[in-house]
Specification:
This is ABC transporter ATP-binding protein. By secondary structure, this protein is an alpha/beta fold. It is built from 10 helices and 13 strands.
Length: about 280
């Protein structure tokens, strides 16, 4: 097995099981993207792997140890997570927010050391946000704020970074900016990136490894060729997709799609004949 994997984990709230008997392996030093429809368990899986929530049974193993038995600060030195909706940073400057990433390394009264300041400035430089260091986080655009949150994750100096829908609420240009930054971190610094994405073509373009989920289970895990195809997408999203090639990356991409409907599915919602007839006039 690899460095990070789950073994037969079940995750739920009370009696409601969301993720069922799931075993996945996260490739080291690669970009892994989890896809699936709303409510399929993508974010729940991310939270369980990072110990934000507990799993009911099974195990999550990192470097040969069950994460439930790992010291909190030691775990925070190995993995960082950027949640879907980061907590408000009202009143904080960019530098102050990024400094929170140094928490696992602080002792005593938590004063920043020279090393801490060097790492914070490095994280700001890498994410292209050093010029905002003394500005209020509230004054930044959505794309700028997202890069600052990523800088905070980088300041943790972890090999593994989890991101839950990092492009949510961003326009197309800022989405691309964030994803290219993550790709750069992976290629140049060999960071292992695990993220949840909704947009299929972004997932295909930037991921080395894809995990497609439905109803708390893995439908297919593998490279883009294995996952972005008509058969898998029909199972996961109930769509009939036309798959082509991205002319810039040569990776598979979804060109268009229709909903798959059963023979008598939604019969009760069929347009009455007299309305269909009147539409012809």
């Amino acid at each position: 097995m690899g460095r990070l994997y789950t073994s037969n984990i079940n995750i739920g709230y009370g009696d409601h099981v969301i993720v069922k008997n799931l075993s996945v392996e996260i490739p080291d030093k690669k970009i892994t993207t989890i896809i699936g429809s709303n409510g399929c368990g993508k974010s729940t899986l991310l939270k369980a792997i990072t110990r934000i929530i507990s799993h009911q049974s099974g195990s999550v193993v990192l470097d040969g140890k069950d994460i439930l038995k790992e010291n909190t600060k030691n775990l925070a030195k190995k993995m960082a997570i950027l949640p879907q909706s980061p907590e408000s940073a009202n009143g904080l400057t960019v530098g102050e927010l990024v400094s929170y990433g140094r928490f696992p390394y602080q002792k005593g009264f938590g004063r920043l050391t020279k090393k801490d300041i060097e790492v914070i400035d490095w994280a700001l430089e890498v994410t292209g946000t050093i010029e905002y260091k003394f500005r209020s986080v509230d004054a930044l655009s959505g794309g700028q704020r997202q890069r600052v949150w990523i800088a905070m994750a980088l300041a943790q100096e972890t090999d593994i970074i989890f991101l839950d829908e990092p492009t949510t609420y961003l326009d197309m240009a800022h989405q691309l900016e964030v994803l290219e930054l993550l790709q750069k971190l992976n290629k140049e610094q060999e960071r292992t990136i695990i993220m949840v994405l909704h947009e299929l073509n972004q997932a295909a373009r930037f991921a080395d490894h894809l995990i497609a989920m439905k109803d708390g289970e893995v439908v297919k895990a593998g490279n883009c060729e294995e996952v972005i195809n008509r058969h898998v997408l029909q199972k996961v999203f109930n769509i009939d997709a036309e798959i082509g090639r991205d002319p810039r990356t040569n990776k598979p991409m979804c060109i268009t799609y229709n909903l798959v409907k059963g023979e008598n599915k939604h019969e009760e919602n069929r347009i009455p004949d007299h309305f269909a007839l009147s539409a012809n006039y």
